[in-house]
Design a protein that fits this description.
Blueprint (H helix, E strand, L loop, with lengths): L1 E2 L5 E3 L6 E5 L2 E9 L4 E3 H7 L5 H8 L5 E3 L16 H27 L6 E8 L8 H9 L6 E6 L5 H15 L4 E8 L11 H7 L5 E9 L6 E4 L13 E9 L7 E6 L4 E6 L3 H18 L8 E6 L4 H11 L7 H10 L6 H12 L7 E8 L3 E8 L1
Length: 385
């Protein structure tokens, strides 16, 4: 027996085109959800009566066509009423829970798993703070078993989906045969400041509301999983990739490049994005990807599917150029950005869902998941169908 990535045992079999893997988590299903109403960038500019040419240019040149948002109520004069931080936290609780429950239900339907089968629930959010957290509230509202193990990942930002996936996969491997569900639910409508600066214009032009959930199961030894590694092998009937490993990179020199600040004038938290962050992320992408692939004896050319966080047009371009990817490689990343905006931690799962809908994955294909966020951080995962 030989060992590949940590946590993955590979048994040497007579047929070199076939391998039997145990001790890895399998993605059994995925589901996504958004708020009901979406808006074009032009509609948002008109609704908020934004006339500054520079701000309008930021919105209209973002490569985003529509975003799902929960905008403030309308005042008598047609303007939008301001929302205090307390109102935003209440919005976060309502929207994040509604979307989260819908995403979990969609995930269970996709995977053929019952609500009563959930043994572990990991909830990720950055757009508000709750105690008790979303996991506890979701268990109560959905009727998930009160005996379900749970954890909340709060405030880590757009990269957090892969941080949480690492922990969720670890739980699944430690509890073979049991169902672990990870939910990313981001009510970005509940995290904003309105002023006349370009700083807030960039943030307000970018983010949308969305939630995504995936179910993980690690097979028991008596249900070992066989895959064909032969070129041109049959399509994966279940569409259920194995998670083979993770690699992380914290860019300590850019630790303040993405952050929440408290705005005394507004009485709210205000998110900051450094204009240089696309180039910082792009410049550091190669080393973490190469470390991820080196651990499995792979090259970038071995990767059939790339699912990169929809962080913004410039971020996607910087990553694509630095990794030598084609526009086709990041087609789902760019289409999710176009149709939803940046969905924070849930973005990469929207791309994953679109990839599965194409039915192009084949048994033996490798895929890379990649998210970027505050820290500044790049998180990656390697999967195989």
């Amino acid at each position: 027996m030989t060992t590949s990535l940590p946590g993955t045992a590979v048994l040497d079999l007579p047929d070199p085109a076939t391998k039997l893997t145990t001790g890895t988590a399998r993605i059994a299903g995925v589901g996504t959800a958004t708020t009901e109403r979406s808006y074009s960038q032009l509609e948002l500019l008109d609704l908020f009566r934004i006339t500054d040419p520079k701000v309008r240019s930021v919105f209209l040149n973002s490569a985003i066509e529509r975003r799902h948002l929960t905008i403030p109520p309308e005042a008598a004069d047609g303007t939008r009423l301001p929302e205090a931080q307390g109102e935003l936290l209440a919005k976060h609780k309502r929207v994040a829970l509604d979307m989260g429950a819908a995403a979990v239900r969609a995930c269970l339907e996709n995977s053929g798993i019952e609500l009563s089968d959930i043994d572990y629930l990991c909830c990720v959010t950055t757009t508000g703070f709750l105690t008790p957290g979303i996991s506890a509230l979701l268990i109560r509202e959905m009727g998930i078993s009160a005996a379900t193990s749970r954890v909340d990942v709060v405030g880590m930002g757009c990269n957090a989906g892969l941080n949480a996936l690492n922990a969720t996969a670890g739980w699944a491997v430690a509890n073979p045969g049991k169902v672990a569900v990870m939910l990313c639910t981001e009510a970005c409508s509940a995290a904003y400041v309105m002023d006349s600066t370009l700083r807030t214009a960039v943030v307000n032009s970018l983010f949308g509301d969305g939630a995504a959930a995936i179910a993980l199961v690690a097979d028991t030894p008596d249900t070992a999983y066989v895959t064909s590694g032969a070129p041109g092998g049959p399509p994966s009937a279940a569409g259920s990739p194995r998670i083979l490993g993770f690699a992380s990179h914290l860019i300590t020199d850019a630790i303040d490049a993405m952050r929440y600040d408290w705005d005394d004038d507004q009485g709210k938290f205000s998110f900051y994005l450094d204009p240089q962050i696309p180039y910082v992320v792009g410049a550091n992408a190669e080393q973490v990807i190469d470390r991820l692939l080196d651990g499995a004896g792979l090259r970038r050319s071995d990767i059939a599917h790339w699912l990169v966080h929809s962080g913004g047009k410039k971020v996607i371009d910087a990553v694509r150029v630095n990794l030598g990817l084609t526009r086709h490689d990041v087609r789902h990343t760019t289409s999710v950005l176009r149709d939803y905006g940046n969905l924070s931690s849930s973005s990469f799962l929207f791309s994953y869902e679109r990839l599965l809908a194409e039915r192009v994955t084949r048994a033996g294909d490798y895929g890379v998941l990649m998210t970027m966020g505050p820290g500044s951080t790049i998180e990656t995962a390697l999967v195989q169908w």
